[in-house]
Design brief:
Length: 113
Amino acid sequence: MKTVTILCEANPETDKEHFIQLYKEVFLPESIKINGVVKIQYSEITPVESDMFQYTMGKDIFFSITVYFPSSEAIEAMISDERTGELLPVFTSLGVSTHWFVGVEDSVTRYHF
């Protein structure tokens, strides 16, 4: 399974709660309709400060969206879908910058018996 992960970064004027509510109520129902989308997962993120690691990207990453696709061709179809092009300017108008990553899903699960 191929994935596209989008990390959302706030600027000082961003209303994070409003963005998250809007995503759940408006963007998510439309995004799942895009051809090739198999599943969408999202997470609210709270940065953790630690001496073990430093921030390398973004000062205020607050939301993560991972979209699952069956193939690279499905990702290309999503990118060319007009609904995708309409979402990005809306994110920007709400004060949210996005960082995009394409990957391949791989999972390891620990089971307790």
